[in-house]
């Protein structure tokens, strides 16, 4: 192996090993993570139909509120290794390592000079690995880990396609984005404008061929995403689970409504849950810098803005080759589109969504750092200054750490200027100190995130001084109590484990049902699903009770202001059966 490639291999290996250590370190502190998806993985491990549809329970009453691609991975993991924290969470950590590796190779091949390309790739991968939102999601079992991996893979395929105007590589872009759709629906297509624009502008072929290639990629995307949707639509509704979150048992409504337009503009079951205070999460241009979003993704945002300005300058001066221009276009449009969506969406918005920004941020910083010396210096100053602000705001770490970052930034700038003018041998030292100054803040918060136990449906990166409780914990407390909180007393779990009926119990809400399923290993009917779906009706529930298919009804404490069916069922149970206490839970024996 040539010396110039040996150091690249060693550096990449070290980066991936460090990423794996960060994402795998003390992983079981998160337990099963999001019990909602963990229960679905457990169900998929028990029943192949539940695995295919993404059912919450192995008897296929109702699905989760997302398509099942991420659950296919965790379901297979649980089937192979049993139901435990490692089986649920390790796949996400490995996806994170994979995303860092793919981003490295994507950015490396964007730069004409191989050595500079390797440096750009290493910087990009490091930024992705150390973004707190990425550390959070790659240690958790929400679908975002697979989503990011697939989007980065699509970017790699795009760079290959642009290089040779290859319709085959472009078709793989469509396949990857189709799978991203099956992971988190329209969220997986936010990067589509960036990919289309880059190929239209920079593929080395005639314009009409570019259009034809894009149409072919669109067909690949539709097939990749549509085969599962078509099967669900054509499958008789009576013999498959209800499509959770759809409100009408239609997967297209789930995609375009609850997981689509409603998330962006509000409406339906998607509700904004911001909070008041000095760092508001209300829609607006400052949201991405504020509160939990700011902590999870904005550490290097000022550096990204410098990179975008530098890219525009280099493009205007014609100092970028075609592939470099395509790369900057791809990552800039990716970053801008996602930032605008997250900043202004008025439906259900959670800080961890911003993990989608991390690959673009890393790529832009890496490319600008090796293609513009002045941009590299400016990015060090911008990143260090904002890190000091965020660390102070969050109350994270000792005060001397902020002084250390500031001093390192000043030193790095001085050394970089000296290396560029008189003493080029200082370059390695200057780069090392520059990276320390730029990445220390986000690295500290990422380590704090990894050290923080997370559970529930809306995790936040780390506990901070000025924003507590966080958006996620406030939302969780307003939506669920009792059995929905994720804890089930051992007496109740033992009681449900001893049942022999189709469903050991029924309870209001998927979160409560998920916790009961994990604790007892039984199927629990989730009345109303995740978002007040109209199932089962009171008549259907009464029929199931009279048929001897449900042993217990358990009060979950879930708010029922928008859950008419759940309220009617709860009232009927209270009128016909006597409550008893098991541990801290109120239950009704229906048999």
Question: Tags for this entry?
Answer:
591 residues; mainly alpha; five-stranded mixed beta sheet; 24 helices; 4% strand
Description:
- The model is unreliable at 270-280 and 465-485 (pLDDT under 50).
- The protein has a five-stranded mixed beta sheet with strand order 2-1-3-5-4, with helices on both faces.
- A hairpin with a 2-residue loop joins β4 (579-582) and β5.
- The protein contains 24 helices and five strands.
- 63% of the residues lie in helices and 4% in strands.
- α4 (69-81) crosses α5 and α14 (301-316) packs antiparallel against α17.
Q: In terms of topology, how is this protein built?
A:
Layout: H1 3-24, H2 35-46, H3 48-53, H4 69-81, H5 85-108, H6 114-130, H7 132-137, H8 144-164, H9 167-184, H10 192-202, H11 207-234, H12 251-265, H13 291-297, H14 301-316, H15 322-344, H16 358-371, H17 373-394, H18 399-421, H19 427-451, H20 471-479, H21 490-497, E1 503-508, H22 510-520, E2 524-527, H23 538-546, E3 550-554, H24 564-576, E4 579-582, E5 585-589
Parallel strand pairs: 1-2, 1-3
Antiparallel strand pairs: 3-5, 4-5
Helix pairs in contact: 1-5, 1-6, 2-4, 2-22, 4-5, 5-6, 5-8, 5-16, 6-16, 8-9, 8-10, 8-15, 9-11, 10-15, 14-16, 14-17, 15-16, 16-17, 17-18, 17-19, 18-19
Mean pLDDT: 91
Shape: globular
Estimated structural class: mainly alpha
Reported for the largest beta sheet, the result is: 5 strands, mixed
Computed over alpha carbons, the radius of gyration is: 25 Å
- Helical percentage: 55-70%
Strand proportion, as a percent range, falls in under 5%
Total DSSP helices: 24
Order of H and E elements = HHHHHHHHHHHHHHHHHHHHHEHEHEHEE
How many individual β-strands? 5
Spatial strand order of the main sheet: 2-1-3-5-4
Question: Span between N and C termini?
Answer: 72 Å
* Low confidence ranges: 270-280, 465-485
């Amino acid at each position: 192996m040539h010396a110039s490639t040996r150091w690249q291999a060693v550096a990449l290996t070290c980066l991936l090993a460090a990423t794996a250590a960060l994402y795998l370190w003390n992983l079981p502190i998160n337990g099963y993570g999001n019990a909602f998806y963990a229960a679905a993985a457990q169900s998929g491990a028990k029943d192949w139909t539940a695995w295919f549809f993404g059912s919450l329970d192995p008897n296929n009453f109702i699905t989760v509120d997302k398509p099942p691609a991420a659950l296919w991975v965790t379901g297979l993991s649980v089937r192979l290794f049993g139901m435990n924290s490692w089986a649920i969470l390790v796949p996400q950590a490995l996806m994170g390592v994979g995303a860092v590796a793919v981003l490295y190779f994507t950015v490396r091949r964007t730069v004409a000079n191989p050595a500079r390309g390797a440096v750009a790739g290493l910087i990009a991968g490091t930024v992705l690995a150390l973004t707190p939102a990425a550390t959070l999601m790659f240690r958790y079992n929400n679908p975002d880990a697979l989503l990011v991996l697939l989007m980065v893979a699509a970017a790699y395929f795009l760079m290959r396609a642009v290089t040779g105007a290859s319709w085959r590589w472009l078709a793989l872009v469509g396949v990857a984005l189709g799978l991203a759709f099956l992971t988190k629906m329209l969220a997986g297509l936010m990067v589509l404008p960036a990919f289309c624009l880059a190929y239209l502008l920079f593929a080395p072929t005639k314009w009409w061929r570019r259009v034809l290639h894009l149409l072919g990629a669109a067909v690949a995307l539709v097939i990749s995403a549509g085969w599962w949707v078509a099967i669900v639509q054509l499958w008789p509704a009576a013999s498959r689970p209800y499509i959770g979150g759809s409100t009408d048992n239609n997967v297209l409504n789930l995609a375009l409504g609850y997981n689509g337009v409603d998330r962006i503009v509000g409406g339906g079951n998607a509700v904004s849950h911001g909070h008041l205070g000095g760092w508001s999460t209300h829609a607006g241009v400052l949201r991405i810098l504020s509160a939990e979003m700011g902590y999870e993704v904005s550490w290097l945002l000022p550096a990204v803005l410098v990179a975008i300005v530098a890219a525009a300058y280099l493009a205007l001066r014609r100092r970028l080759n075609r592939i470099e221009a395509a790369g900057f276009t791809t990552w800039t449009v990716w970053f801008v589109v996602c930032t605008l969506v997250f900043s202004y969406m008025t439906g259900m918005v959670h800080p961890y969504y911003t993990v989608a920004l991390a690959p673009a941020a890393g790529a832009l910083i890496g490319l600008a750092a090796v293609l513009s010396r002045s941009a590299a210096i400016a990015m060090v100053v911008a990143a260090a200054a904002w890190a000091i602000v965020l660390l102070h705001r969050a109350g994270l770490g000792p005060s001397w750490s902020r002084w250390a970052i500031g001093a390192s930034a000043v030193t790095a700038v001085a050394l970089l200027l000296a290396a560029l003018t008189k003493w080029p041998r200082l370059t390695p030292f200057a780069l090392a100190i520059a990276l320390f100054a730029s990445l220390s803040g986000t690295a500290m918060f990422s380590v704090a995130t990894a050290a923080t136990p997370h559970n529930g449906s809306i995790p936040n990166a780390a506990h901070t001084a000025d924003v507590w409780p966080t958006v996620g914990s406030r939302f969780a407390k307003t939506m669920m109590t009792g059995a929905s909180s994720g804890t089930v007393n051992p007496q109740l779990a033992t009681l449900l484990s001893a049942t022999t009926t189709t469903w050991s119990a029924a309870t209001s809400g998927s979160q409560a049902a998920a916790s009961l399923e994990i604790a007892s290993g039984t199927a629990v009917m989730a009345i109303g699903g995740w978002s007040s779906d109209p199932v089962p009706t009171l008549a259907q529930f009464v029929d199931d009770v009279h048929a001897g298919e449900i042993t217990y009804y358990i009060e979950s404490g879930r708010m029922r202001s928008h859950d008419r069916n759940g309220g009617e069922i709860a009232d009927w149970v209270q009128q016909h059966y006597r409550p008893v206490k098991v541990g801290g839970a109120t239950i009704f024996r229906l048999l």
